[in-house]
Amino acid sequence: MQANLEEVLSNYDRLISYINKNIPLISEPITLLGLEFTISEVVLPIVFLILINLIGNLVRSLLINKILGKYIEDRKTVLSIGNTTKYVILFFALLIALTAIGIDEDSSLNFALSKTGDNPLKFFELLRVLFFLILLVFLSGKLKTIFVKQVMSRYSDDIGVNQSIGTIFQYVAVLIGGLIIVQNTIELGSLNVLAGALGVGIGFGLQNIANNFISGLIILFERPIKVGDRIEVGQVTGDIVRISSRATTVSTNDNISIIIPNAEFISKPVINWSHSGRNIRFHVPVGVAYKEDPAHIKSILLSIAKSHPDVLQTPAPDVLFTEYGDNSLNFDLMVWTSTYINRPTILKSQLYYLIFEKFKEHNVEIPFPQRDIHIKSGSIVPQK
Q: Hey, is 381 helix, strand or coil?
C-alpha cells in the first residue's frame, strides 16, 4: 500500500510539473504565511476532491438502491451504511490530497505527544486510531441492528433476548477490532504514558462511567431486565426500550424517555412486572352497602370480568370477600391480563365503568361514609 501511495504521489508531481510547464498563468509562485506554492498546487487537489465526491455519491447510490436493499430490510440502516461509505471514501481522498501538498508524517504538524521511549506517539497516529475506532463502533452498531432484526428474529420472538445477544455481539466485535487497530497502527510502547493517565482518570474522574459499564455487562449476562420489560425503579415506571453500555432508556406511558444509569438497576430494588411472563394479575377493590347479598355481588363481578375481552379466562378471574369495612362490605376482584401490563389504570377504569353500570342495573347500593351525631339534652352539673 505504501508503494502504491508513493507511485500516486510521483504521478501527482509529474502532473503538477506538466501543468506548470504548459499553463504559465497558474504556475506563478505565491507566498502566504511563509509558505510558497503555485495556484496549480491548490486547484488540482480541489478538483481531485470534487471528482472523488462525485464517485462517492455514485457508490452511495449504488449501495442504497441496487445492493443493500436486497439484503437489509431496515431503510435507516441502508441509508447510514451508504452515507458512511461515501464519507470514508472522501476521508481517504482527503488524506491523499493532504499528503500530496506536503502534510504527511514528516510534516511539522505531526508532533510527538509523548517524549518518552524510542517510538513516541505522534499526533497523526492518534488521529488515525481515533478515526478507525469511531468507524468500528459505528459499523458494529449497524451490524448489530442487521443481526438482531434479520437474523435473530428468525429464531426467537423475544425482543429482549435478541437485543442482549446483539449487544454482546457488538461488544465482542469492538473489543477484537479495537485490539487489531491499535496493534497495527501504534507502537504499544508509546502508549505507556497515556495508559497510565487513563488509569488515573478511571480511578478518579471516570469511576461512575466504569461502574455503569460493568453494570451494563452484568445486566446483559444475568438479564434481570431486558428490552420490552415493564419495570419500576425508584419513582420511575415504564417500558425498557434500549439498554446501552452506560444507561438504560425507559419510556413512560406519557411517551417520556427517562435515561437511567445502569448502576441503578444493580444497586437498588427493581420491580419487573414481566420478568417471568406477560401475564399479570390486577386487583380491583369494590365496596357495597351492608344490605347487599355477598354471593350476588360475587356473581355480578365475575360476569363483568368474563365479559371483558382483555381479561384472561385462564387463569380465571376470582372475587374475594376481604372485610367488613366501616361503611361497606369490601370485595377484591382479581383479574389476569397480558395486554394491559403497561396500562393497568386503563383496565381498572374500564372495569369500574362496567361495575357501575351493572350495579345500577341490579339496584346495588354503593355506600359512602356516614356519621351519626346524637345530641343529649340536660343541664351540666358543675364540679366542685
A: coil
Q: Does residue 178 belong to any structural domain of this protein?
A: no
Give the three cell numbers for residue 109.
504538524
pTM for the full model? 0.58
Closest CA to 366 of 358, 374, 377: 358
Structure confidence by residue, pLDDT tens digits, 309-327: 999 998 999 999 999 988 8
Residues 226, 290: one domain? no
Is the same domain home to 99 and 225? no
Amino acid sitting at position 338: S
Same domain, yes or no: 16 and 132: yes
- Asked whether residue 131 falls in the same domain as residue 43, the answer is yes
47 and 150 housed in the same domain: yes
Average pLDDT of the chain is 79
Please state at what angle helix 207-222 crosses helix 159-185, rounded to 10 degrees. 130
Output the pLDDT for position 187: 64
The DSSP bridge partners found for residue 379 are none
Does residue 285 have a cis peptide bond before it, meaning omega lies within 30 degrees of 0?
A: no
Per-residue confidence at 180, pLDDT binned at 50, 70, 90?
confident
Residue 11 counted as domain residue = yes
Give whole-number Cα distances, 261 to 99, 179, 226, 309, 325, in Å. Answer: 44, 27, 15, 38, 44
Distance between CA atoms of residues 321 and 301, nearest Å: 12
Per-residue H/E/C for 47-102? HHHHHHHHHHHHHHHHHHHHHHHHCCCCHHHHHHHHHHHHHHHHHHHHHHHHHHCC
Residue whose cell numbers read 457508490: 59
**CA-angle at 200, arms to 197 and 204, nearest 5°:** 140
